[in-house]
Amino acid sequence: EVLAYLKKQKTVHAKDSKDLSLFAKAHGVELEPADDPELMAYCFDPNQTEALSLTRRYGLTEWAEDDLQKQASASFELVNHFKESLVDKQKSVYEDIEKPLSKVLLDMEYAGIALDTNFLKDLSETLAKTLGELEESVREVAENPLLNVNSRDQLAELLFDKLELQAGKKTTTGKRSTAVSVLEQLRDKHPVVGQILEYRELAKLRSTYLEPLPKLVNPNTGRIHTTFSQTTAVTGRLASLNPNIQNIPVRTDIGRQIRKAFVADEGCQLLVADY
């Protein structure tokens, strides 16, 4: 029903107009994203952008996800409302920056980005070996070959009982905290603290990026297709969603290694830009 409607249009004025245009493009229909009431609302007040809340706030036709006619009616009313409400700098930001940007992001999302999955697989295996070595080192200090490095209680027993390091704050359950902020204060007290911190960082990177990213490659395109959201962060910063490929750490060596897995096609280059 949605695709049949979109085929009759040249532009789309609607909530998530970029996403609708991307959906149409994926089905061979060229459709330009036009006015998006949530994007307009974002330029008016970045803290209030959700369509249902907006229709209630301004007493308009209430948004209904399962009713295409109501969606269209609510979008039309919201667009007209914000065309009158956006003035001066707000209007300029929307018309000159955010609205044109949505068309650029549409093309970026559709194109996707290539991923060297073999590189990630090799890196994951290397990290697994390093994690095993760190785990053994911690177990040797604990004199417990079965110690679980991911167990807060077992780490607390090692650090605060066996090694008698000064315990920091407690959790809401009354247990001794082994959070990163606590361990950082103890880093210089014993080498095992640094090993635990390194283990946690590498384990997180492996589970967050190295293992899931290859599974998120679209089998039809061989590329990862993230969604760039213009209305998630109140600061104006773009957000990368499903998956998030924007926050891969760059300050650590392993983070820089992960970034190398994102590659450009032959004859092309990747551009790093701060919007």
Characterization of this structure:
The chain is mostly helical. It is 52% helix and 6% strand. It is built from eleven helices and seven strands. It has helices at 2-6, 17-26, 37-44, 51-57, 68-85, 88-111, 117-142, 152-162, 180-186, 191-210, 253-259; strands at 11-12, 32-33, 113-115, 223-224, 227-229, 239-241, 262-263. The chain has a three-stranded antiparallel sheet. The protein has a two-stranded parallel sheet with strand order 1-2. Helix 3 (37-44) runs parallel beside helix 5 (68-85), helix 3 (37-44) crosses helix 6 (88-111) and helix 7 (117-142) runs antiparallel to helix 10. The longest helix has 26 residues, at 117-142. The radius of gyration is 25 Å and the shape is elongated. The protein starts with a helix and ends in a 12-residue tail after the last strand.
Can you list the strand order of the major beta sheet? 4-3-7
User: End-to-end distance, in Å?
Assistant: 36 Å
Enumerate the spans where pLDDT stays under 50 for 5 or more consecutive residues: none
Output the number of helix runs. 11
State the total count of DSSP E strands.
Answer: 7
| Fraction in beta strands | 5-15%
Helix percent reads: 40-55%
Biggest sheet features: 3 strands, antiparallel
Mean pLDDT: 90
Output the helix-strand order.
HEHEHHHHEHHHHEEEHE
